[in-house]
Amino acid sequence: MLEGKAIIEDTDMPVKMQFQAMASASQALDLYDVLDCKSIAAHIKKEFDMKYGGGWQCVVGSNFGCFFTHSKGTFIYFTLETLNFLIFKGASSASAA
């Protein structure tokens, strides 16, 4: 595991899920090169799909913009090492948070 500490920028996830998100990100950074953002994101998405059911999305990088609708209680945006992590479960606009 990396020694770096994650900084949560914004979230509406339960605390236990937040820790899972940061642990999955740290594990992915141990497994993949820091420049391989696609593999890091895929690793985290697969972990969340297995643990919390399908439909999760994950964006990893140092510079990106986004606009999305998510299910309430499933969003986190944090920084770990030099990368930003955005994890959320998609939703229809009728049930948007």
Throw out a few tags for this protein:
motor protein, 97 residues, DLC_sf, four-stranded antiparallel β-sheet, alpha+beta, cytoskeleton
Describe it:
With 97 residues, the chain is of the alpha+beta class. The protein is 34% helix and 24% strand. It is built from 2 helices and 4 strands, in the order βααβββ. The protein has helices at 15-31, 37-52; strands spanning 7-11, 56-61, 76-80, 83-89. It has a 4-stranded antiparallel β-sheet, with helices on one face. A hairpin with a 2-residue loop joins β3 (76-80) and β4. α1 packs antiparallel against α2. The model has no long low-confidence stretch (mean pLDDT 90).
Brief rundown of the structure:
With 97 residues, this protein is an alpha+beta fold. The protein has helices spanning 15-31, 37-52; strands spanning 7-11, 56-61, 76-80, 83-89.
Radius of gyration: 13 Å
Widest sheet, order of strands: 1-3-4-2
Name the structural class: alpha+beta
Low-pLDDT runs of 5+ residues are none
Could you say which overall geometry the principal axes of the C-alpha atoms support?
globular
Roughly what percent helix? 25-40%
Q: Number of helix segments?
A: 2
What is the typical, i.e. mean, pLDDT? 90
Characterize the biggest β-sheet.
4 strands, antiparallel
Portion in strands: 15-25%
Question: Distance between the terminal alpha carbons, to the nearest Å?
Answer: 32 Å
* Tally of DSSP β-strands: 4
What is the string of helix and strand elements? EHHEEE
Family: Belongs to the dynein light chain family.
Subcellular location: Cytoplasm, Cytoskeleton
InterPro entries: DLC_sf, Dynein_light_chain_typ-1/2
Keywords: Cytoplasm, Cytoskeleton, Dynein, Microtubule, Motor protein
